[in-house]
Specification:
The complex is a heterodimer of chains A (about 500) and B (about 425).
Chain A: H1 10-16, E1 54-55, H2 59-63, H3 75-78, E2 86-90, E3 99-102, H4 104-115, H5 149-152, H6 160-168, H7 188-199, H8 203-229, H9 248-260, H10 262-273, E4 332-333, E5 337-338, E6 345-351, E7 362-365, E8 368-371, E9 411-421, E10 427-432, H11 436-445, H12 451-460
Parallel strand pairs in A: 8-10
Antiparallel strand pairs in A: 1-2, 2-3, 4-5, 6-7, 6-9, 7-8, 9-10
Chain B: H1 6-10, H2 12-29, H3 43-49, H4 61-65, H5 79-92, H6 108-111, H7 121-126, E1 131-134, E2 146-150, E3 153-156, H8 158-177, E4 182-185, H9 192-202, E5 205-207, H10 219-222, E6 230-231, H11 242-246, E7 255-258, H12 265-273, E8 278-282, E9 293-296, H13 302-328, H14 338-372, H15 378-402, E10 409-410
Helix pairs in contact in B: 8-13, 9-13, 14-15
Classes of the chains: A alpha+beta (about 500), B alpha/beta (about 425).
Organism (chain B): Apiospora rasikravindrae
Protein name (chain B): 37S ribosomal protein- mitochondrial
Family (chain B): Belongs to the universal ribosomal protein uS2 family.
Chain lengths: ~500, ~425
């Protein structure tokens, strides 16, 4: 039997298994925002996601600049950092230099992210407030890209599967990868180009697709009528209507009918082109205000797809950052025992809430900018200064105002709820409300406060004798500026 | 040293104590009391001293309250014992724990240089020999060495590198076996250690600084009067060639190994003009016809150059070893250079002529003496005897030099280590 692999020389086999050859090609950089053309944009800002492989080297090799590439990398720039991490953009360029830069930004961020034990979940629909059910992106019902071939064919309108779709939602729309584009995110020019290049050439193919669908519908109609007339004849005994037997007139009539039914036509077209689902739920058009009474509510387009409103993600929805399915595990504390919530994470208040614009504060968690919860939490308190109110610590210092006295910037302990990747490849981390008890436990664990030690010390000390009830603590005729009132005792023996 | 300032310099305390004792004695002897307070460095000492029977006064407040200068008790020095204990412990625990396997260290290639036998495709790939230049800066003459393009660079075929490296190692070994003068050249920064190591192994010369243009083609001006010595086949210096060495031209290497041909184009050109074979590491952007024996490899990676340099150095070492063994068995692997041969011929003939002339002179002297019946003057006889003696010595030297089993050779070119 002839082997499918071509025989290669030993050197070629070696090279193919080498590390240089196994370096993946860089992926496309994050898509630029058109509005950023007029905004201030930092040149040195960390990109939303890494595009190149991170390369490291043993310390002995780093000392001589050997990173496994064409030439030794300069020692001056590569030996200063704690961790040896570079990304090589070009192994060799026409200027005879190796184009590289430090990759600590993304690599250390990944390490910090892994420390948080976060799992990625499917983004919850926007209209559902509060605590949505978190569904992992690795669930079998969500983590698939290729539909079964039988599913790709359009389901007949009156069939049982079509009814199931109407009730439970289309399982195909739960995918995260589609062959076609997301029409809602295309510009006008992109759309025209797509129509001209990819769609127009498939006209005859679409006709055949319609023919097959019409044949399937006809078969279903005939089967139902036969079973109504004569229950003894099994439906499958009669051969199904073939697509070839559909005449041009029948097809024309069917097409005319489809032109009147826009939703059905859109469903068919999107099924044929495998378009990514779109949603009209977020548009602020007048019909949306009507709630249940929206006309054609039954034909709502792919409401079940989590990516309909923002577009499908450009990577796997976990982005390879975490492979955890759930955070449903319990942390144990050596003294306090099992903990209700996960350990708090120390976060950086990157930008406080500005007084004028009332822009939401930006909170950096493990290298990512996290979204503060949208509902009423301690983060939504707009108190200008952190004043400890009675019975609550709702003021987060530095959240609403820049506090120059805080060395290294203001920090806050936060509870991280979940993360997901949006359509532009950015990681969106959702925070939940603060839990002060958890914060204290975590602070004690890292040595920022000593609750347990303080309590033990307090319990070990003998209680101070209570004051005799007859002794006056404070005299009613207090004189300001007197020695007893300063706590110096009754020096002169005089009673004021 | 100025003695009178000794006390001031060495501190008051050194002189104060004997002075105080002397004062006590003096007080016992003399009747008058001295009211002069004496300054002391150590208040505790002073307090102790003041408890004399003559002066049983209570110590001053300062002396009572002052702490002794040395607060901590002196701990015995256990450094040596501790060190010995640690060594003993390490010895006892030597076999406990995991065996740490030695994988790779960048200095391995210098500690244990690989030879031609150790050249494997794995070694070459690990030392980045396969990485050529950016695909757009290639020299199409290198197409036969190139395997393909990856990551935007040309990949040099490892088999080609290995084959050409083995061939070059063979060349170096044979040149060393035949007593040739090898020169290792690597003029880029970081190549010093590689070049010197290869030269040390192969008993060759090295160059890690700029090649002065004209060192071969204009050596009369560039390298005049640099020391050269003549050796026999056992590499031992041979005398009697001073006159030749005075007026001989500078040496030309018999093989040049160049690690960076791009920067040493001038040298390679001079070598080709002087018919000197060259070995060069040819990257994908280098012209391979500049050198006689090309080794297609990455000329930018110091790791690759170190491997190639040590392989060639080891090859030269093997050649030298074989040559020395053959010399011990009486086999000389090289011919005496023609100019030395010529010089020796001339010297021999001159010696013969001198000898003959001396004999003839002696014969004529004897004859005339017999005719005249007059003994020759003692001084003349003595002079001729001295002359004969010196001539015989010279003859012996020349004979020794021209004997069949002795083949003088020029050994050292002036090493350019500036």
């Amino acid at each position: 039997m002839a082997s499918t692999q071509r025989a290669v020389s030993p050197g070629a086999a070696l090279l193919r298994s080498s590390r240089l050859f196994s370096m993946p090609a860089p992926i496309a950089p994050p898509p630029g925002d058109m509005s950023q053309a007029t905004k201030h944009k930092s040149e040195t800002a960390t990109a939303a996601f890494p595009t190149h492989l991170t390369v490291t080297t043993p310390s002995t090799s780093r000392m001589v600049g050997d990173w496994g590439f064409k030439r030794p990398l300069p020692l001056k720039t590569t030996t200063k950092s704690t961790f040896p991490l570079v990304r090589v953009k070009k192994v060799d360029s026409i200027e005879h230099v190796t184009d590289f830069q430090s990759a600590s930004d993304h690599t250390i961020t990944l390490e910090k992210f892994r420390e948080m034990n976060l799992s990625f979940s499917v983004p919850a629909p926007k209209d559902r407030q509060g605590n949505p059910t978190l569904i992992s992106v690795f669930e079998e019902s969500r983590d698939f890209t290729t539909p079964a071939p039988s599913n790709l064919l359009a389901t007949p309108k009156g069939s049982a599967s079509a009814r199931a779709i109407k009730n439970d939602g289309d399982p195909l729309s739960l995918r995260w990868k589609f062959r076609g584009p997301w029409l809602a995110g295309m510009t006008d020019g992109e759309f025209d180009r797509y129509i001209a290049k990819s769609v127009r050439a498939r006209r005859s193919e679409f006709r055949q697709f319609l023919r097959e669908r019409l044949a399937a519908e006809k078969t279903a109609d005939r089967n139902s009528s036969i079973s109504e007339q004569d229950a003894s004849t099994p439906a499958h005994a009669i051969p199904p209507v073939k697509a070839d037997s559909i005449t041009e007139e029948e097809l024309l009539e069917y097409t005319r009918g489809l032109r009147g039914d826009r939703h059905e036509l859109f469903n068919l077209v999107s099924r044929f082109l495998d378009l990514a689902p779109v949603s009209n739920a977020d548009s602020h058009l007048a019909p949306n205000m009507l709630g249940h009474m929206i006309p054609d509510k039954a034909y709502d387009l792919y409401r079940d797809s989590p990516y309909a409103s923002e577009g499908p993600p450009i990577t796997h929805p976990s982005a390879g950052l975490s492979y955890l399915r759930t955070q449903a595990f319990m942390e144990n504390h050596p003294i306090y025992g099992p903990q209700k919530s996960h350990a708090s994470v120390k976060a950086r208040i990157v930008t406080p809430r500005f007084g004028v614009t009332n822009q939401n504060p930006k909170i950096g968690v493990g290298g990512f900018i996290a979204n503060i919860p949208s509902h009423e939490t301690q983060f939504s308190s707009k108190r200008r200064h952190a004043v400890s109110a009675v019975g609550s610590n709702d003021g987060i210092p530095g959240l609403n105002d820049f506090d120059p006295s805080q060395e290294g910037g203001a920090k806050v302990y936060v509870q991280v709820q979940t993360a997901n990747v949006d359509a532009t490849g950015k990681v969106q981390i959702r925070l939940s409300d603060r839990d002060l008890e958890t914060d204290i436990v975590q602070k004690e664990l890292v040595g920022e406060c000593d609750t347990f030690g303080g309590a033990v010390k307090e319990a070990a000390q003998p209680k101070p004798r209570s004051q005799p009830s007859g002794e006056r603590r404070y005299t009613s005729n207090r004189t300001f500026g007197s020695a007893p009132n300063y706590g110096l005792g009754n020096l002169g023996g005089r009673d004021f | 040293m100025i003695i009178r300032e000794f006390g001031v310099r060495q501190g008051r305390k050194a002189l104060a104590a004997p002075l105080r004792r002397g004062q006590q004695c003096m007080r016992a002897l003399s009747t008058e009391t001295s009211g002069t307070p004496v300054a002391t460095a150590d208040p505790a000492v002073e307090a102790a001293l003041q408890t004399s029977p003559e002066n049983p006064t209570v110590p001053s407040l300062f002396a009572r309250t002052a702490k002794p200068t040395r607060r901590r008790p002196v701990a015995p020095d256990t450094t040596k014992a501790d060190w010995e204990t640690a060594q003993q412990l390490r010895h006892n625990l030597r076999n406990v724990g995991a065996q740490v396997e030695h994988r790779y260290s960048p200095s391995d290639v210098f500690r244990n240089p690989p030879g031609p036998k150790d050249v494997t495709l794995e070694l070459l790939m690990a030392s980045q020999a396969h990485m050529g230049h950016h695909a757009s800066v290639w020299n199409p003459a290198n197409a036969r060495y190139i395997y393909g393009i990856r990551q935007g660079i040309h990949i040099i075929s490892l088999e080609q590198t290995a084959a050409h490296l083995r061939r070059a190692a063979r060349v170096v070994e044979e040149v060393a076996y035949h007593g040739g003068l090898i020169l290792f050249v690597g003029t880029r920064p970081g190549q010093t250690q590689i070049v010197t190591q290869a030269a040390r192994l192969a008993k060759a010369c090295h160059l890690f600084t700029k090649w002065t243009p004209g060192t071969i083609t204009n050596s009369d001006k560039i390298l005049p009067g640099l020391p050269v010595e003549i050796v026999n086949e056992h590499d031992q210096p041979v005398g009697g060639f001073n006159q030749h060495l005075m007026d001989r031209r500078a040496l030309v290497p018999d093989l040049v190994v160049c690690l960076n041909p791009l920067e040493n184009f001038t040298m390679l050109r001079e070598c080709s003009q002087a018919n000197v074979p060259t070995i060069g590491i040819v990257d994908t952007n280098t012209e391979p016809t500049w050198v006689t024996y090309a080794i297609p490899a990455n000329d930018d990676s110091l790791r690759c150059l170190a491997v190639i340099g040590s392989v060639l150095g080891r090859a030269g070492e093997a050649g030298q070893k074989r040559r020395m063994e053959d010399a011990k068995n009486g086999k000389v692997t090289w011919d005496t250079p023609s100019e030395i041969k010529q010089f020796m011929d001339i010297q021999q003939k001159r010696a013969q002529w001198t000898k003959r002339a001396a004999e003839e002179e002696a014969a004529t002297k004897d004859k005339s003496g017999g005719l005249n019946g007059k003994p020759s003057s003692g001084s003349a006889t003595k002079d001729s005897e001295v002359f004969d003696e010196s001539m015989q010595k010279l003859q012996m030297e020349v004979d020794a030099a021209t004997a069949d089993d002795v083949s003088p050779q020029l050994r050292k070119m002036s090493r350019r280590t500036d």
